[in-house]
């Protein structure tokens, strides 16, 4: 079993590649900086080369046969130990996450605990039936199915949930007997090293999990082009996801993609407006709006629009924006100067289009990643503010005549990840469930929020058709053999 290294030591010297069970350095390195204090380095990381990726695939391929034949209860025990180890270090992990991403410490702690829950869920899921028995037309034949691992899986994960999203990919991929090559987002490298230490210390055999840090554009071809690749799971931008899918389209590689959203909330006149305002603001502003399931658009019936807009303003202005390590903070900085510039460009569009600013609308200068949570109104349906994923604490409110108009506007998007309706009318709520074009639907709840035991994924441009989490993860990370067993 690998002893947990000191995270500060491993991050100081750039020894952050984990290949074949050992930590390695690279000739090239890069630094990341605390988005709340840009003068403060959060670590020096190894910049992997295609040769490192090839070594990672070699190690994974060599480890795969023994790992796939390891009994499921033993693999489950490793996940359970990983959950215990991570829970014991929850505060340390949360501070690592906050240093990487600027996420408010309460949200960071909740994310780490969510990773713990995911590990525990899949440690239990591994003990569930792994096949079925079917009736056969032949009385001398037993007909059954058995599950087997796919082989070597490549996981490419984003920066916004640097513990939770990798865990909901790695736990089932590893748990169901696959070896993994993991490429995290550069911005989340510190959290990735921490999570890798945890999983290795829990007892993963050498080579079963391999971590390569560095720039995705430099490694993309080597990650997707290796002939040992059996499955690819990716969360990130639609543009990158499409390129990855195209890169493996001519091979028998299983693909799972989650590609973002432009998530609407519909507020009807009969809703509990006070509660709806709380839920919408949580969905839009927490985690600094950097969630694929964040609420981005709100359609409210005209008769209650003035009241609801005022409630939104009050709720947003109560948010505490500041030092993400302060327990009182609700909204920390954006994750990087690059993301600050992206959000600033959308606020400039709002100014150019002369949108009404209900609250917020300001962003700090080049030396800061902080932005004021913003609520806008008056955008045209074809505005980029209504069409594109902003990934920041920016919410656009529009008035509509009735439920049908709200639903039509909510569905007017290329995305289809999450949606919400606020109403006391059960008939309208169920009509929304049937007619909304999203893979996740919330009734009287914010659009964000995912539990580990249910399927997660979107429609349209938001994802591939292979869902994540819950029993859907078993379906993706395994293949099925049908067995005809005839007695003689």
- What is the CATH class of the largest domain? Alpha Beta
Strand order across the largest sheet: 14-15-16-13-12-17-18
Which percent range describes the beta-strand content? 15-25%
Q: Give the CATH architecture of the largest domain.
A: 3-Layer(aba) Sandwich
Distance between the termini: 47 Å
Report the major sheet: 7 strands, mixed
Domain unit count: 2
Shape annotation: globular
What would you note in describing this structure?
It holds the Pfam family Aldedh. The chain has two domains: 7-259 and 463-485, Aldehyde Dehydrogenase, Chain A, domain 1; 263-451, Aldehyde Dehydrogenase, Chain A, domain 2. Helices cover 40% and strands 20% of the residues. The protein is built from 16 helices and 19 strands. It has helices spanning 7-12, 50-68, 72-88, 90-101, 105-125, 164-175, 189-201, 216-225, 238-247, 273-285, 305-318, 337-352, 384-387, 403-411, 426-435, 470-477, and strands spanning 17-19, 22-24, 29-33, 41-46, 133-134, 141-149, 152-157, 179-184, 209-211, 229-235, 254-258, 263-267, 295-301, 356-359, 374-377, 394-400, 418-422, 440-443, 478-486. The protein has a seven-stranded mixed beta sheet, with helices on both faces. It has a five-stranded parallel beta sheet with strand order 9-8-7-10-11, sandwiched between helices. Strands 5-6-19 form a three-stranded antiparallel beta sheet. Helix 6 links the parallel strand 7 (152-157) and strand 8. The longest helix is centred in the N-terminal third of the chain and has 21 residues, at 105-125. It is globular, with a radius of gyration of 23 Å. Mean pLDDT is 95; it is low at 1-9.
């Amino acid at each position: 079993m690998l002893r947990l290294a000191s995270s500060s030591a491993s991050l100081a010297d750039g020894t952050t590649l984990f290949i074949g069970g050992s930590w390695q350095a690279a000739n090239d390195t890069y630094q990341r900086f605390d988005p709340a204090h840009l003068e403060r380095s959060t670590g020096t990381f190894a910049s992997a080369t295609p040769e490192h990726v090839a070594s990672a695939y070699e190690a994974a391929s060599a480890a795969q046969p023994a790992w796939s034949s390891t009994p499921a209860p033993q693999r489950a025990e490793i996940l359970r130990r990983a959950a215990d180890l991570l829970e014991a270090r929850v505060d340390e992990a949360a501070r690592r996450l906050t240093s990487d991403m600027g996420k408010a410490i309460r949200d960071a702690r909740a994310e780490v605990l969510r990773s713990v829950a995911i590990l525990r869920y899949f440690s239990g899921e591994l003990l569930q039936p792994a096949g079925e028995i079917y009736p056969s037309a032949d009385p001398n034949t037993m007909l059954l199915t058995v599950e087997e691992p796919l082989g070597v899986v490549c996981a490419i994960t984003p920066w916004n949930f640097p513990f939770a999203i990798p865990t909901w990919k790695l736990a089932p991929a590893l748990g169901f007997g696959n070896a993994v090559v993991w490429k995290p987002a550069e911005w989340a490298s510190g959290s990735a090293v921490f999570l890798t230490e945890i999983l290795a210390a829990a007892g993963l055999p050498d080579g079963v999990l391999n971590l390569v840090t560095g720039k995705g554009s430099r490694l993309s071809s080597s990650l997707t082009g290796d002939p040992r690749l059996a499955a690819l799971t990716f969360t990130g931008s639609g543009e990158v996801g499409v390129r990855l899918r195209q890169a493996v389209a001519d091979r028998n590689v299983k693909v799972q993609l989650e590609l973002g959203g432009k998530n609407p909330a519909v507020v009807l006149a009969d809703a509990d407006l006070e509660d709806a305002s709380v839920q919408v603001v949580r969905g839009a502003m927490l985690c600094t709006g950097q969630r694929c399931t964040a609420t981005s658009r709100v359609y409210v019936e005209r008769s209650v629009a003035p009241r609801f807009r005022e409630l939104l303003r009050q709720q947003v202005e109560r948010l505490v924006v500041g030092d993400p390590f302060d327990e009182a903070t609700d909204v920390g900085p954006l994750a990087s100067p690059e993301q600050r510039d992206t959000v600033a460009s959308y606020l400039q569009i709002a100014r150019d289009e002369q949108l009404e600013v209900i609250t917020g609308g300001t962003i700090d200068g080049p030396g800061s990643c902080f932005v004021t949570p913003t609520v806008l109104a008056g955008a045209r349906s074809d505005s980029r503010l209504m069409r594109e994923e902003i990934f920041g604490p920016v919410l656009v409110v529009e008035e509509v005549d009735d439920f049908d108009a709200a639903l039509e506007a909510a569905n007017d998007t290329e995305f289809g990840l999450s949606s919400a309706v606020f109403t006391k009318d059960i008939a309208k709520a169920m009509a929304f469930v049937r007619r909304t074009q999203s893979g996740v639907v919330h009734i009287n709840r914010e659009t964000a929020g995912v539990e580990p035991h249910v399927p997660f994924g979107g429609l349209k441009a938001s994802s591939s058709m292979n869902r994540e989490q819950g029993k859907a993860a078993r379906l993706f990370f395994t293949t099925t053999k049908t067995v005809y067993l005839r007695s003689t």
